[in-house]
Amino acid sequence: MAAALQQTPITYRSRSPPSAQLQSKPTIKLSLSSNLTLPKLSIKRLPRRRGGGASGARMADSAAGSYANALADVAKSNNTLDQTSADVEKLEKIFSDEQVLGFFTNPTVGEETKQKMVDEIAKSSSLQPHVANFLNILVDMKRIDLIKEIVKEYELVYNRLTQTELAIVTSVVQLESQHLSQIAKKVQQLTGAKNVRIKTLIDPSLVAGFTIRYGNSGSKLIDMSVKKQLEEIAAQLDLGDIQLAV
């Protein structure tokens, strides 16, 4: 069964206060307007060349990284890296709705209509002005289709700038906050990171227990799940693949 992303990550810090809690996902209405005034944000226009296969994917990654770095530069200059990270997570939730993403990538929807929707999102989600303006720029430059990749790239940039280690904890049920804090401290000991940020996933197929994935692109895994233990027992008994009823 596929893992389902939980809404609220927690951050463990050794010397600084935790990031602001995220707000719940707003209701999107496609017919509202706003007069929100936003500051200017300068981003170098990237070429619109298209490529297929691996080449096209590399170009998209490069473009997303450029936008993410531009946003991080603005956030760093006005000392809002943490708040901007929280805003980016709000965008991640909003654009995980395929209907919302489809609206913004639909070429038959006028740019003015999309800009009004950006204003509504900014108001309902309490986005900082430079984040709202960043969305407007993506709409104007027709790069809103990169929003999910930009979110991932911004997270990498944020973690690097703040010396933060991201750990993804997957469990059958939501773990208590004290248990997540203990996991964060353990990851900090293992990595030597100044800060550890925890994101949680729910995956009933684990049966019980949990897994912790951290390191560069999640390259390191601590598997404390019953599913893993059963698979190891099956391997030792030469039972082949086993099916777990959940």
From TrEMBL:
<keyword id="KW-0472">Membrane</keyword>
<dbReference type="GO" id="GO:0016020">
    <property type="term" value="C:membrane"/>
</dbReference>
<dbReference type="InterPro" id="IPR000711">
    <property type="entry name" value="ATPase_OSCP/dsu"/>
</dbReference>
<protein>
    <submittedName>
        <fullName>ATP synthase delta chain, chloroplastic</fullName>
    </submittedName>
</protein>
<dbReference type="Pfam" id="PF00213">
    <property type="entry name" value="OSCP"/>
</dbReference>
<dbReference type="InterPro" id="IPR026015">
    <property type="entry name" value="ATP_synth_OSCP/delta_N_sf"/>
</dbReference>
<keyword id="KW-0813">Transport</keyword>
<dbReference type="GO" id="GO:0046933">
    <property type="term" value="F:proton-transporting ATP synthase activity, rotational mechanism"/>
</dbReference>
<comment type="similarity">
    <text>Belongs to the ATPase delta chain family.</text>
</comment>
<dbReference type="InterPro" id="IPR020781">
    <property type="entry name" value="ATPase_OSCP/d_CS"/>
</dbReference>
<keyword id="KW-0406">Ion transport</keyword>
<comment type="subunit">
    <text>F-type ATPases have 2 components, CF(1) - the catalytic core - and CF(0) - the membrane proton channel. CF(1) has five subunits: alpha(3), beta(3), gamma(1), delta(1), epsilon(1). CF(0) has three main subunits: a, b and c.</text>
</comment>
<keyword id="KW-0375">Hydrogen ion transport</keyword>
<keyword id="KW-0066">ATP synthesis</keyword>
<feature type="region of interest" description="Disordered">
    <location>
        <begin position="1"/>
        <end position="26"/>
    </location>
</feature>
